[in-house]
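hi! just following up on the protien thing from before. the input was this:
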Amino acid sequence: MKTIFYSVLFLGLFNSSPTHNIQNISEVEVTFKIKNLGISVGGKFTDVIFESDFNKDDLDNSFINATIKVNSLDTDNKKRDEHLMKADFFNVEVFPSIKFSSTKIERLQDNSYSLIGDLTIKNTTKLVTIPVLINNTTLNASFTLNRKDYGVGGNSWIMSNKVKIEVSLVLH
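and the predicted 3d structure came back as:
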C-alpha cells in the first residue's frame, strides 16, 4: 500500500545549472493515498533525500535519485504505521529504504518531463516512468503505482491495489 509512496523518491531537485544537489528534507513533500474499505486513507514520508544533477540543456548527463526511509511513514495512526512496517507490508527490518535511480530524463514540452528509472521497494526493482512538471522553483509529480507489483500488502480484498503518489519540492 505504501510502496507507491516510495516512487516519489525519484523526483529529485531540478536546477537549471548542472550542479550536484541534495534536497533539503524540510522542502520536500511525499504523500500517498489508497482506498481501504472504499475509504481514502493517506499518509506521508518524512525522511526523504533527493540527489540531482539536472540541466535542461543536457538531459543525457542529468540524473535524479531518491531514498526514502520506510520507518518515516506517517498515516496519523500509530498502530497502522506499526503494522505497515511488518513483513506483509514493507518489512522495514529487512528493507529499510525505498530507492529510485533515474536512468533517463526526457523533455515532453516546455516544463513537462518524463523521469524514467528504477524503483526498488522491498526486494523488487521495476522500471517506471513518472511525469514531472517544473514551474519556476517547484517540482511536482503525481502518479499511480500498483502495490502488488512490489509485494506490499498481500492479496487484500478490502485494500485497493492502486496507490496514488504526490511529490512536491522546492528547487534551489
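The radius of gyration is 15 Å.
The longest strand covers residues 97-109.
cheers
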